[in-house]
Specification:
Helices cover 51% and strands 10% of the residues. With 681 residues, the protein is an alpha+beta fold. The protein has a five-stranded mixed β-sheet with strand order 1-3-2-4-5, sandwiched between helices. A four-stranded mixed β-sheet has the order 19-18-20-21, sandwiched between helices.
Length: 681
């Protein structure tokens, strides 16, 4: 009997027809293991995971393997994206036992959930031997197995402790973090570290804000070089836009082909802010096309943004994306085929498997003669049309609250910056306008879906699919990311509703996730009890719950003037500060918020009857200091605290600039506003 057919998780549904007698994560599964007196297999993965698919094909679809599992175990399948709390607990156990982690994650546990053996991917023969060994150990060495499990639980309980040293996250620590990143920077290829190389989006966001505050040229150079290297590499889809999860090499050539919502949302913010600060045409193009990718490929009309595009197509990595020179000629003709092979570094030897190449951009296309740009754009269009006839990767179409929050914030920032250049007439003006229209619609769709479907009785749910909200409760990063998104939407639209909702989410987070000393747990005080209560303060693939909450608190405090939210943010950052000093690569989002607090953050209110077209609004957004909030509209708009008691000046638009709840005199000229904001450095 397979119990996954009614799951909201596409990953669980992928296993609904397995001969394995799978259970979803539930109390009944552990009760069944206790009744049968057998151990539990907890198998954790996600829909876009390549090696999860491999293990499924090799083992979980195999009748003999399934018989071993069904006879001797209760098998539980977990979507790590739907249950990040379960994933966090058992990943900590896996890392403690093996020194490494990853997915698929394979955990053997006692009927009370205590893990006693952990691993990741096992080839079929190894997995069968492991099943036999665990069965023997459970039967003949039960006491030793349980002692080992108890030791693991004790170890990971200490690893998830919330106590520890605290320190103010001040300029000295943030300067040291920037210097630490510069020391780890790959000056040849961009990014940090070696293979595999992940896009360091949160660190780049921190460095951009650090550069704004300090004028440090090194920080800006690291961002510009890394952004360009990724945009020209195979990790970026040169035809349709969007970034893959990571590069298997150190120079961004061959990606692991899954495209995750969270990566693309965070990278959209990087390229948008780089464009805002420098006017870089490459950053403009990548921001535009990443926004288009989100709106075209991941948006689900009437809902939010889907989680990912799969790494595989029909079980083969890269089947959709890789090319040979002959395939280029077939799609484009002889002349354009050779042009494309040269431009995209497609060779007979290949850069991928079986003589195939992943497209990389060998030369600049943003500052070239119009005829070269036109030819490049024509080639891209023809290749994309040809690629669309190939089999396409599956889409994990569940909606994750936190990741949708990241996408909403990114698109809101992109729309603000795109609006600064709305009057610019060039060859891409119509394309930019079209992207802003569809991105705006997708963003609002996602926000409405979160507000109406995911918010249940004042609390967030983690996931939904096909309009149906799932049972898993929201974790801390859901509350933080969605609150930050609603604050961004409030700034973009001037609508008080979004700020009110952000406050409700932050109040719920402060009430249900707080620990002592300014720290936070990742699960609520009334959530399901696991063997430990996770509380990871480090930023990894996505912002930690603590970092996400701080970002929401900082924005909300600046928009409302309520100091208790700022104080909560400062206390939370103080628990992360010692980690910032030692491990800057894993605290980028926290450091980004630290820069905002150190800067002010500035609160900029522009009273105007033309929020979309007033030059004061454009100047405020163009020159906003790190983490500044900007709100525009008529005085005393309901639900918009920054516009309260701030009149027009002599009937003219005026900008009110405040820092730390202390305000300067209002200004009515762009020159005076820019001078005030430049003085913020």
């Amino acid at each position: 009997m397979n119990r996954l057919v009614d799951a909201t998780s596409p990953y669980l549904l992928q296993h609904a027809d397995n001969p394995v007698d799978w259970w979803p994560w539930c109390d009944e599964a552990f009760a069944e293991a206790k009744r049968r007196d057998v151990p539990v297999i907890i198998s954790v993965g996600y829909a876009a995971c390549h090696w999860c698919h491999v293990m499924a094909h090799e083992s979980f679809e195999n009748e003999q393997v399934a018989a071993f599992m069904n006879d001797g175990f209760v098998s539980i399948k977990v979507d790590r994206e739907e249950r990040p709390d379960v994933d966090a607990v058992y990943m900590t156990a896996t890392q403690a036992m093996t020194g490494q982690g990853g997915w698929p994650m394979t955990v053997f546990a006692a009927p009370d959930g205590t893990p006693f053996f952990c691993g990741t991917y096992f080839p079929r023969a190894n997995f069968v031997r492991l099943l036999q060994s665990v069965t023997t150990a459970w039967t003949d060495q039960r006491e030793e197995v349980l002692r080992q499990g108890a030791a693991v639980v004790e170890a990971i309980g200490g690893a998830q402790a919330v106590g520890g040293p605290t320190a103010p996250l001040d300029a000295t620590l943030l300067d040291a973090a920037a210097a630490g990143l510069a020391g780890e920077y790959d000056a040849t290829n961009g990014g940090f570290g070696g293979a595999p190389k992940f896009p360091p989006h949160m660190n780049l966001l921190f460095l951009l804000r650090h550069h704004q505050r300090t004028a440090d040229p090194r920080s800006l150079e690291i961002v510009r070089h890394t952004a360009e290297a990724m945009a020209r590499g195979g990790i970026y889809d040169q035809l349709a836009g969007g970034f893959a999860r990571y590069s298997v090499d150190a120079h961004w050539t061959v990606p692991h082909f899954e495209k995750m919502l969270y990566d693309n949302a965070l990278l959209l913010r990087v390229y948008t802010q780089l464009w805002r600060l420098t006017g870089d045409p490459l950053a403009r193009r990548i921001a535009r096309d990443t926004a288009r990718f989100l709106a075209d490929e991941l948006h689900r009309p009437g809902e939010g943004f889907a989680s990912a595009l799969d790494a595989d197509t029909e079980g083969v990595e890269g089947l959709t994306y890789a090319w040979t020179p002959a395939q280029l000629v077939e799609a484009l003709g002889e002349d354009d085929g050779r042009f494309a092979a040269d431009l995209f570094t497609v060779t007979e030897a290949g850069t991928f498997e079986h003589g195939m190449s992943v497209l990389r951009l060998a030369r600049d296309v943003d500052d070239v003669a119009p005829e070269i740009r036109a030819r490049w754009q024509q080639v891209v269009g023809q290749l994309l049309a040809a690629r669309d006839t190939r089999p396409q990767p599956a889409r994990d179409d569940k909606v994750v609250a936190a990741w949708n929050g990241l996408a909403i914030t990114a698109i809101a920032e992109f729309l603000q910056v795109a609006g600064l250049y709305a009057s610019r007439q060039d060859e891409d003006a119509n394309l930019m306008e079209g992207v802003t229209i569809v991105a705006d619609g997708a963003m609002r769709d996602a926000a409405e879906h979160l507000a109406t479907a995911h918010l249940v009785d004042g609390r967030l749910r983690r996931v939904s699919r096909d309009g149906k909200v799932g049972e898993p409760a929201g974790v801390l990063d859901d509350y933080g990311c969605v609150a930050e998104a609603f604050c961004a939407l409030h700034q973009l639209t001037g609508e008080g509703r979004w700020l009110t909702l952000a406050g409700q989410l932050l109040d719920a987070a402060l009430a249900h996730f707080a620990a002592s000393g300014g720290a936070y747990y990742d699960t609520a005080d009334d959530a399901e009890r696991l063997i430990t209560r996770p509380a990871d303060p480090t930023d990894n693939a996505t912002p930690s719950g603590r970092s996400a909450l701080v970002a929401g608190l900082v924005a909300y405090a600046a928009l409302t003037g309520e100091t208790r939210y700022r104080e909560a943010a400062e206390a939370a950052l103080a628990t992360v500060a010692p980690i910032v000093a030692r491990h800057a690569r894993f605290t980028g989002y926290a450091a980004m918020s630290g820069e905002a607090l150190l800067s002010g953050p500035y609160e900029i209110a522009v009273v105007t009857d033309d929020p979309a077209g007033d030059p004061l609004v454009a100047a405020a957004r163009r020159h906003a200091p790190p983490g500044a909030v900007v709100v525009a509209g008529l005085p005393d708009q309901p639900g918009v605290p920054l516009l309260a008691d701030r009149p027009l000046v002599d009937g003219r638009s005026a900008a009110y600039v405040c820092r730390g709840f202390v305000c300067q005199r209002p200004v009515t000229s762009v020159e005076d506003l820019v001078a005030e904001l430049r003085a913020a450095r």
